[in-house]
Structures are given as structure tokens and as C-alpha cells.
Write a structure and sequence with these properties.
Strand order of the largest sheet: 32-31-30-29-37-36-35-34-33
Structural class: mainly beta
Shape: globular
Radius of gyration: 25 Å
Number of domains: 4
Distance between the termini: 19 Å
Number of strands: 46
Oligomer: single chain
Length: about 575
Amino acid sequence: MPKTIKLLILASTLLLLAGCGGGSGGSSGSSGVTVIPSGIQVLAGASRQMTATAVDGGTAFTWQVNGISSGNNSIGTISQSGLYTAPDLPPPGGKVTITAIEQSNTSQSGTATLSIGYSNASLKGAYVFSMGGLSSGTPWNAIGEFSANGAGQISSGLQDINNGSSAQTKIPFNGTYSITPNGFGTITLGGINTQFALLSGSEANFISTDNQTIASGNFAPQSQNAGSVSTLSGPYIFSLGSANSVKQPFAELGRFIASNGSLTSGTVDINGQNPLVNASLTGSYTFDGSNSHGTLTLIYNTISYTYSFYVQDATDLIILSSDSSLPISGSISAQQAMVFNNASLIGGYVFFAGGASPTQGFVQAGQFNPNGQGNLGNITEDINTPGNVANITPPGTYALDAAGTGRGTLTINNQGQNAPQTYVFYMSSPAQAQIMTMNSSIVAAGSITSQPQGTAFSNSSLHAHYGFALISQASSTSLLLGLGILSADGQGNLTGNLIENLNGSVSSLLSLSGTYMLNSSVRGTATLISNGGSSSPFAIYPITPGGFVLVGTNASSPYLGLAIIQY
């Protein structure tokens, strides 16, 4: 499942008008026809009656949304009597243009602009979720599924939990949720209270707001056909870990071929207390009566390890260890069927990895340009361990295994930075790979994602609303989480909101302001200032205009996060 900040909340009077669909501003861009209301906010799923008045007295009109007669589900629909119904999610840009064309004189028309805000209707249907962190100081992980009714209720929830002392599966739960117009929301998942920020596609990042459970995670729509998936077929990449906790850092990457309940031709790499390098792997899997849930067994070094899983769709699953002594979770994703070699990794890529050493946290993010022949080209990266921050441009190399399975090794010359030099990665496609450190002192995992060829980024590239989540393991006893929304204006200015869970101390909703500078296709900088007065510096690595990596450059808190477009 594996992919911040919207404009500040309007003044209370404007919010009241927006929530009621109130206000009756004049038409914009009209010619002979006036359309009202204009300039107001309509919440997702809500309706608003539009009215058109023609100068020549005409009373019959053809209605359009963004130039499309009657509109559609993505931008909202409008009846031929002018009743507009907003989509469940804000469209790109967060606004729509309503046009009324006079039927008896089609040269006469008028327009009105409406802003679309989120609402409870923005969360509707089936979802899968995964979260992990610390509960009373102990590593804790959970995965599950639920259904949201679009009106604030969740039902049919099932949750698997591994809390370090026991592992339980398919625990039923129900709950509630509430979403504000800017995409912030609260939801109760299996008894854990969380705050979430919606992203495009109805996905969301969330953090716990309970003092005893310091956890972060995400949820994403579950395919309508998830319950009918009864077999896995072809090559898959899996990634597992509990690198959020320095007490028991662990990361695992591997690949297998699934067919008729069996897992064959597998390899696995592990970093942690008992590391493995390119070990052979076999296994099996089975679906239980619900089909969207099942059990998977991985066998390496003659030992069997059991996991539970939930199906997101035919190509993606979330997975949780059933061994209470190893509370880890992760994902399984289908791999593109092809033969991989050095030429499969070419062009511009953004990479990041986060995790921990036995005593402190570690984060790393950067950009490199592999040449398809084993050289990583120009590398720019930021590394942060508490008390040690560096922005460097080291050399590096890579090599894909001769077997063509997509496994490869990578070396970055990070001397003097108390950072790893060797990594293993598994490519799911030429555009995406999972990466993991391969030295015993630091256990960290992350991803590699290609940038569109020829992309040149500048301040104007970031001109949208984004949701983001941050995590920092500052010490062996401190887990810091942040969740927010950001609005970037394309001119270097940021506004938004943030909520924090700092080792169990949950903040109120904070307002954010700040600036960013992005003047190359490689790296930028940003500063976020909360209404409490604290200022946090970041390096930013843009992947596309719709997403970028954030890495904290404050030596006291090594934050790592990913910002994804809302609209």
C-alpha cells in the first residue's frame, strides 16, 4: 500500500455558510446570464440548487460542470433544473465551474465557481488498514479491514494484532468517524482513536491519539472483488519490519512465486539480530472462509514463520507476523513479469529509508541517477541520526543479480556519517523498488521511486494541497509522530495544520505556516512554523508535482515523511 497542508480553516462565519451551502455570490465570467450562488463551498456529497437568470428573459437552460453536460461522478453532477451534487472527493484543484447556457439563445451563458470540501461522504466503502508503533513501550502492530457508510459509521471491522506478548486474528469491531472540510478526520479502529488526513483516491495517513499507543499507519480502499480472490499467481515482492522501535529493529525483504497455494523460487534478505543474505525461501498460503483473509507461511533456514494477511486487491496484500516474539508487519505486492538487469534501473529516482540502530533512530532520503550500467551517477542525499545531520553528494554503484529476479545490491559511500554503505533492493517494476540496509549497526527500510523522465522542478511545481505524515525515533524511549495537511501556493509559501503525538503526549490541532525553495530537479528546502512558535527545517525531494519526500534536518529529531496530493 505502498504512495500537507490545505489552506487554513476559514473564519467561523464562513465555515457556517459553507456547511449550510449558504451565500449567494454573483456569477463569474457571465455573458447575458447570471448564475448564483458563486464563490461558496459545497461539501462532498451535498447538493446545492443553482439559479440562472437571463438578461433577455429566457428561462430554460442547459447545465454543465467543467464544460461537461450534466457533469459526472468525479466533478459532480447537475440536473437540468440546476441541482448540483458534489462528488465524494474534491476534484483536482478543489473547484468546479458551473455553466448555464440559454437554450433559446445558445450564445448567451454564464458561469459560477464552487469550492468542494471533504465530508463524511468522502469515506465510503470497504478499506484495509495497517498500523504500527509502541504500546506502553512495547512494539505493537495491527492490520485489518472495515466498511464505512459515508455517514460517520464503520462496521464489519476485523483486526489482527501482534502486541509482543500475544497475536490475535479477526477480532471484530465497529466504530465511528468524522471528517472536516479540509480533509482532517477522526476514526476509531479496533478501539484505537486516531486522527487521519485524506489523500487523493480516498487513501489516508493516520496517527494514534491515545496516550498509551503511539502508532502511525494508513488505510486504502479495498477492491470490491477482494472477497473473491482465492489464489495468488506469479511473482511477488514482500517487505516486513518493525524498524520503528530501536529496542528490536528488524527488516526483511524478499521475493517468491505464488501458484496454487505454494510459494516457490523465493529469496529473502534480513537485517536485525539474525541477518540473512540472499537465502533460499519456500512456503505456502491459504485463504480462510472469508477469502479476503488468510494465512501465509515462509520457510527459510529450515524454520517456518507464519503470518496472517488481508487482501487489498488481486495484486496487493497487507501482512502481520503471528509470532508474538517478533511483532512485525508489512506488505506483499505483485512484481511485473520480466527479466531484470542493470539496464532496468536507469534515469532519475528518489529514495528514502528509515529505521534505527540499537540506540537511536536513523533517516535518509535522496536522489540518484543510475546509468543502466551499474553506476548511480550524481547522488544528492540527506542523512539524519540524532546529533549528526549531513547533506552530501557521495559516489555509488549498484548491481542486479544475474538470475534476473529483480534483486540487487547497492553501495553508497557514506564515510564519516555513521550511516550504512550497503543496501539490498528488490524491484517490482523499472519504476519502483523496495530497499533495505544491509549492515548490522543500522536497520532501515524504504523505497525507490522513479521520477518522470525530463522532469524539472521549481517552486511552481508544488501548487496543490497535500497530506503528510512524519515519524521520528529520536532515542530508545522516544517515538515522535506528526500528521498534517499543507497548501503550497506555487510561489514558495506554505500554510496548513498539524497534530502531533510526541511519545504519548498528543497536541491540539496546530496551525502551520512556512516557506519552501525548489530550484532544481533534485533537492529543495522547507521550513514549517507551528502556532506554538517552534520552527522545523526539512529537505524535500520531489518525485512528481503530486508527491515529495520530507526529511528533517534538525539534529535533535530525525523526521521522515511522505507528502501526497489531496487535490
